[in-house]
Specification:
mainly alpha, 45% helix, single chain, flat, two-stranded antiparallel sheet
Length: 174
């Protein structure tokens, strides 16, 4: 008598469910992923703000008061004290009619912070004198190594391009 095989039962595996993405938390002050800024390098202040703004987006932070608090959280105590002491940190706009008072925005508070540091403002990043000084300092070198020349060339290009883009020099002065 021939044996017949019964069909194998089908097993239904549950489909993986797509989880809602959870908002990332802001890092702790001294965590390796926390944004950092060295006060001795004012040109890097705007990069510090960009890093913060990426985190705000990733962490779904939209409240301007919270943004200002985080902005001061990752710097030294003295720097934070200076920044939070600015009038616009705790200031609110005056209500008009039935509207409630609102806090000064993060952006409107960031501007006076940047003004505290000469060289941090985008409009004053480099000067023609810095370009001349770079050329002068490197014109006296009698023997260039490829590495030394490369460092000079990168600095020269960076400063020169910025000066051109901001109409501080003209193309024929390059």
């Amino acid at each position: 008598m021939p044996t017949t095989l019964s069909p194998m039962p089908t097993i239904q595996l549950p489909l993986p469910t797509l989880m809602e993405p959870t908002a990332q938390c802001m890092p702790l002050r001294n965590h390796f992923s926390a944004p950092k800024w060295d006060e001795s390098k004012p040109r890097e202040l705007t990069q510090y703000f960009k890093e913060l703004e990426y985190l705000f987006r990733d962490c779904s932070i939209t409240d301007h008061t919270q943004m200002k608090e985080y902005m001061a959280r990752y710097v030294t105590y003295n720097t934070a004290e200076t920044w939070t002491g600015l009038p616009k940190f705790a200031a609110t706009t005056t209500p008009i009619g039935d509207q409630a008072a609102t806090a000064i925005s993060y952006k409107n508070w960031k501007e006076p912070v940047i003004c505290l540091y000469p060289g941090a403002e985008e409009s004053t990043r480099y000067t023609v004198n810095e370009l001349h000084q770079l050329v002068q300092d490197n014109s006296n070198l009698s023997a260039y190594t490829l590495g030394t020349f490369s460092m000079y060339y990168h600095k020269f290009q960076k400063i020169c391009r910025w000066l051109l883009q901001h109409s501080k020099i003209h193309a024929n002065e390059e």
